Amino acid sequence: MSVMTAVARAGSLPSVGTGARPAWMRRLRRKLAILDVFAGLVGAIGVVLVRYDGAAAQLSGVDYRALAVAAAAAWPLVLLFSGCYERRVIGLGTEEFRRVGNASVRLLALLVLLGFVTKADVSRSVVLSATVAMASLTIMLRWMARKVLHAQRRRGRCLHRVVVVGTPGDARALLSSLDRSPYAGLSVIAACLTEPLSTVPDTDVPVLGSPADAAAVVERVGADTVAVASAGSADTGDVRRLAWSLEGRDVDLLVAPALTDVAGPRLAVRPVDSVPLLEVQEPVFDGPRKAVKGAFDRVLAALSLAVLALPLVAIGLLVRLTSPGPALFRQIRIGRDGEQFTIWKFRTMVDGADRMCVDGNDVDGLLFKIRRDPRITGVGAFLRRWSLDELPQLFNVLRGDMSLVGPRPPLPSEVAQYGDDVRRRLLVKPGLTGLWQVSGRSDLPWEECVRLDLRYVENWSVSQDLVILARTAVAVLRGRGAY
Fold this sequence. Notes:
With about 475 residues, this protein is of the alpha/beta class. It has 15 helices and 13 strands. The radius of gyration is 27 Å and the shape is globular. About 30% of the residues are buried.
């Protein structure tokens, strides 16, 4: 049973009443504040101690040690006014880190302004270095705190208590989406649906009323969040009245648009009269961003090949010495715009395995995978376990056939069976890694692989590529879904 529905049981929920914000959120904020103070002290004082020592830290009438302590004391306040402690940004997305970066710019401007007003002869390099150090250490500590928070949420702790409002179908779809993201910490404990049901279809989340009863249900079950499932199917007056009924309760109101899998940078609100229109920008497949991504891919691939030259040779020799056949396996795959190219991998199966008939398939859809494929060699199993067989694809990236990050490179036989929606995967170059690889690899069902690939195609960016590359290292170390 998912974390999301584990706390809900049909027919019996206690009336706990709506209290203040959850205690875990208050504790989390206090811990983040302590970490921020620590980051400020270590970052600022550390720079001063590296640059100066002892009496040398007091130059031109300025005591850099006292200045470092003052900057560290101001740092949490600047973070507070920059919105770094708002509950909607803590623990999710990149907005939290972006706000820390904005706070560092504000602190730097404040220190420069104070230096100008007081006419203090302060070293600009020390001020800049200390600010960068504080911000960097703060981001690192907050990232570590986020990982701890996500681990707690996967165990069913530190969760927001959510009441879902909407139609049965929309509520079920929202529950499914939240179930795939336990780290978001949204635990659905009750629902208010447009139809008189006992539970949300295919779940054990109890239905305790209609959308008009949402405020009373929130009070009864002690929820701190209300999620409207697919506002496209809701009357605007109903949503407005729901917002009014929740005023003064310290309850968050989330509205799920009918449009899904569109990232924030492509969304903007365009107010027209009294109607806020959600503008969805067209996905970008060409232009300067494509050039930057291509240059990034080739440079990183070249550097990786230079660093991994000896391991690549060693793996190739190991494959040749342990089983008859070539070290590399070549296969035709389909790239961007349906163009064919030859993909390179270290051979992990017996020579000629692609011409052998094997019964069974452990995955659904168009993929063909067998957990204990008899054609895989002993060395091949090891290479697959750690994804070392994929390393020769760095040459494909260097040639421009592939990208470091992108959809899985499909076979021609698979593309021949694609529908119009799935064919959108071919709008970008296939990748050595991608969203589906870092989300479960071969353990994911075919539909989920397609959804993740299309999500990447629609919302790709170089910053997202960096995040996926970092997650790839974690996924490889875990080794789940590799066979």
